[in-house]
Amino acid sequence: MITHLLAAAVALLLSTCRAQDAVGREIAPWQPGTMDIHQISTGRGNAALYIFPDGTTMVVDAGEIQTLTQRHTGPRPDGSRKAGEWVVRYIRHALRHDPQPALDYALLTHFHGDHMGEVAGGVPDSRSGVYKLAGITRVGEELKIGKLLDRGWPDYRYPAPVDDAHTKNYRAFAHWQADHNGVKVERFQPGRNDQVVLRRDPKKYPSFDFRNVGANGEVWTGVASTTRNHFPLLDSVPQADWPTENMCSISFRLSFGKFDFFSGGDMPGIPMPGCPQWHDIETPVAKAVGPVEAAILDHHGYIDSMNEFLIAALRPRIWTISVWDSGHPTSAVWNRLQSKRLYPGPREVYATDVHTGVRSVINGIGYMGTDHGHIVIRVGPGGDQFRVVVVDDASESHRVIKVAGPYESR
Predict the structure, then answer these.
(1) Which of 66, 185, 191, 391 shows the greatest Cβ crowding within 10 Å of its Cβ?
(2) Where does the pLDDT of residue 19 fall: very low under 50, low under 70, confident under 90, or very high at 90 and above?
(3) What is the Cα–Cα distance from 270 to 343, expressed in whole angstroms?
(4) Does residue 139 surpass a pLDDT of 80?
(5) What is the per-residue burial (b if ≥16 Cβ within 10 Å, else e) of 100-137?
(6) Residues 254-291: pLDDT tens digits?
(7) Can you give the CATH number for the domain in which 202 is found?
(8) Cis geometry, peptide bond prior to residue 406 (ω within 30 degrees of 0)
(9) What is the dihedral of CA 9, 14, 20, 25, to 10 degrees?
(10) Are 53 and 208 contacting, i.e. CB atoms less than 8 angstroms apart?
């Protein structure tokens, strides 16, 4: 009996040691019963990996802009590979606990190249020859996807046919994967909490919930699964005022025990001059979501995003931001994030790769939690506590460069 108890104690100690992250060491593997949210830094677009408490996996976006200008930071870790390739390699490392790493879900927030992948000269063909490999299509070529969710399947016609070269390539990918590779492709349906569920051991983690909040102007009300249409009927609106691609972005709230996380794609909350007020999609979404522990900034913190109502409603302890552009974030957004008038208490901002131009014009941005690196939110068992782990993005060392927390979930 003593031997068995000793063995159990040693096993628990080893498990605890493996779960600890320390500066200068390789980030520890994911542990069952915990949840990881990785914001991957490539310098070319948004990409995130989620590992749920039972090991269910999801990628949210995998962008790849092809043309870099002075507005952009350099590619991460370097330019020797395309962004989609770096994302695949990062995911394989993060899922090294699994002998056959795969993605249970892939979710595309909207159809822009920095979220799904641009098609340009030099982009290679897929093995099938049906589509080219850029961003999410590269990820799906290399890692098996169980279910693919986007805002447009199957016809991609709202608010008008979406048929630019980049989206056509993605659509060819989605249809080929559905027809030939067994991928289940679905249109994201606001209000539901059963499109993304735990796939490995759902009964063990009853406090997990993935709530579809919004897409295409349809927004969850916060009551049961009911929704309402925030956008007016298009036949009553001049075409110049029709919803933009960003306005149609998918948004969701992820919950595990007391811990809540929000993601809203590139949805705007501040209408451009002369535009109708309903172009603000952040406000109705924020009303449904409420307070969270952590969130990623909408639209990279650009001029039309992160309005006062959203910031005050979400009031997270941790903001993450996927950035690589000299306009991300803007001074006005940064000032709103820091305002104690909007919500009291401490808050920290963690960014993937802040442009030098932003550092020079925004007062106080040097006080960020970090201005470069892969940002990993590690949620402890039951969702009661969480930490932020920043991982080196200048190499594939996966070396921890900062650990913050633990923070208590509310």
Answers:
(1) 391
(2) low
(3) 19
(4) yes
(5) ebebbbbbbbbbbbbbbbbbeeebeebeeebbbbbbbb
(6) 999 999 999 999 999 999 999 999 999 999 999 999 99
(7) 3.60.15.10
(8) yes
(9) 160
(10) yes
